Amino acid sequence: MTIRIVINKLTLTFISLFLCNVVVVAQNLADYVQPLAGTARATTKSATKHGAGTELNANVIPAVTQPFAMTQWTPETRQSEIKCLPPYLYSDTLFNGFRASHWLSGSCTQDYGSLTIMPLTGSLNTLGYATPFKHSEEKSSPYYYHVNLPAYGVNAEVTATLRSGMLQFTAQKNDSLYVLIKPNSDRGEGFVQIDADKGLVWGYNPVHRIYQGWGKPAGFSGYFVVKVEGGFTRRGVFRDGKNWFADTLKGGLNSGAFIGLQVKAGQKVRLRIGTSFSSFEGALLNLNTEITHQDFESLVKANKNGWEKALGKIKVTTSDERSKRIFYTAMYHAMQQPRLFNDVDGSYPQFAGNYKLLKIAGGNYYDDFSMWDTYRTQMPLFEVLEPALVNDCVRSMILKGQQGGWMPVFPCWNSFTAAMIGDHVTAFIASAYVRGIRDYDVKAAYSLMRQNAFKIPTRSDYVDGKGRRALDSYLKYGYIPLEDSVPDAFHKKEQVSRTLEYAFDDYALAQVARGIGVTADYEVLIKRARNYLNVFDPSVKMVRGRYIDGSWVKPFHANLKQSYITEGTPQQYTFYAPQDINGLAKAMGGPHQLELSLDKLFETGEYWHGNEPGQQIPFMFTYTSSPWKTQRYVHEILNDEYNDGPGGLSGNDDAGQMSAWYVMAALGFYPVNPASDHYILSAPIFNSYQINLPGKIVFKVVVKKRIAGDIYIKSVKLNGKRYTRSYIKHSDITNGGVLELTLSATPNKNWAINVADRPPSLSK
């Protein structure tokens, strides 16, 4: 009897251990990622009220890739490289192939330098080949995608490395298999060449600029080389549905190459594809370096391991599986950009160059910075998780400035763009600097940023997208008056928003000036940091369009979109003074009036989460005597504006900014002022989490709560000591330690209300 009891105990122990192991396997972080989330029109609360047209699309794609990779591999449901048309939309029903994409994830821009590869069976069809597919027959993850194509009797799969990809087509019947290889040049400038002896297809797709210099050559192409394992028996080229036997084709719409072979049921055909922005040779070098002897399954495994490592920098504990899916999907989206631009040997196209190649001496060269969006949260997130990446990004910015003669304000397509407004490359570099990330030539960076802030470009440079828009007006009046319509910009007018954002950029640059001892510049810049007050009308306690003579625009519509505001309303943009929230509060009549204004914004439903300049707003209650309202509204936004369904992202994801907001808000710390070294505290949604920092340093957060409804901070401890401030410093995180938060279901209206416990601000 005793023996039987012992055996039962051992059996129970074994079962318990087995179940624990099962749970561990199920906790693979990459499998929480839902790449289809955000591929449909937004269904979130504020998006349906304030969004319209393309602003209702998150514009993300179900990318198979690696973090910050050169190329993303996506199923294609929309052909072409048209602005604001992502390669994949959830509502579509036809599959056009796999695209090697350079889509700026989540943005209303356009793809470039891409190619599409499409399998088909039966007779050759090079024009009307799109085929029906079902979402129920898709498998989508960051490291692998599969779709069944029943009309062709083919299972199609893809996985990826940083610069290369592998496709695998499995035949379901004996048939002829054809593969179309298309450089997606909307301008008919693509090129393909077949080398049958080596089983290779080469090609390129020239890149063109958009925004400033729209349509001009960008000075580089998207190059590719396709290697067909086992070779092929048929080959040719096509253009607009006409096919002929040849090995080379240049130019023409709907053009490319085809290869063909006979397959048997169950046979697998694999294609290895290398990509490059430098040359054919670079594409082949990337392919041969990144994909050597691996079969498809081992490459899938390696890619998954890469994502596990990247996502594992933050490990959360919660019983809420939905929140976990949203969180790791958000991390995945935030890691799509910036884009790796150099080959494995360091070669990359010169910024704003003319097909001139350079070689980076150390680290990597990056591009595709949607900087108006990402300086706010996405880049600060990487400043915590990936300081080495941030150093590479700043060095890349310095190279761009030196090669192009000016620091770009929104560098994409390896070109000047002058897209959006502001000068937020400056804000990003300053944010890295104030957080102690400085493995680059600080003085070189400062010289380029200073030029943007003080120098008026020549007419030809200005038209080309160099320098700050309307800087002459800004310097002359201390604001941009309505008479200056800013014609040489994609976003014209928007004078009040530009004034507000330049004031912040001046503050950011002032921090670097002070740090390197340029006192005279600091004094000028820190004075300019208060220029936001020049467009603040005390009579309405909001920002408002202003003329040269100082008069205010009439009539005033606080809650309607205005030409002098970027993608929003005066009421929404009034709260954009992240460098000086105390000063803004004073202009309104004091912290209590700031609180009332914030209350009104939320209570009337005027908060729009889909527009980045308002994303700091819910955290601004910490500058008043009611920080508990930050905890309330952040919790509501996390629940209302994010989901794991196809429509679960509120408006354009903008290169990962919207997703990065979720990551940091869910963790409970947020950079309201990105050019500072502190983060606003709110209540994390997880039971606990740990951030695995470089150097094996760990920052752990423990959340003590009784029920899911405990969303308010009752008390805080940092490294075992009582902590009363409503913010923490960057070093509190990066030095490692333990943050303990005790939560309750009702607000603690005495926590962090003292002025000394409120976050720093330009004004005291």
Automatic annotation (TrEMBL):
- Which first-to-last residue range defines the signal peptide? 1-26
Q: What class of enzyme is it?
A: hydrolase
Q: Which domain of life is it from?
A: Bacteria
Q: Which Gene3D superfamilies match?
A: 2.70.98.10, alpha-1,2-mannosidase, alpha-1,2-mannosidases domains, GH92 mannosidase domain
User: What UniProt keywords are attached to this protein's entry?
Assistant: Calcium, Glycosidase, Hydrolase, Signal
Q: What cofactor does this one take?
A: Ca(2+)
Supply the EC number(s). 3.2.1.-
Which residue range or ranges hold the Glycosyl hydrolase family 92 N-terminal domain?
Answer: 32-276
Q: Does the keyword Transport apply?
A: no
Q: Which InterPro entries does this one have?
A: 6-hairpin_glycosidase_sf, GH-type_carb-bd, GH92_a_mannosidase_put, GH92_N, Glyco_hydro_92, PNGase
Q: Domain Glycosyl hydrolase family: where? A: 283-744
Q: Name one GO molecular function term.
A: hydrolase activity, acting on glycosyl bonds
Known Pfam families for this protein?
A: Glyco_hydro_92, Glyco_hydro_92N
Q: How does it assemble?
A: Monomer.
Name of the molecule in the record: GH92 family glycosyl hydrolase
User: What organism does this protein naturally occur in?
Assistant: Mucilaginibacter roseus
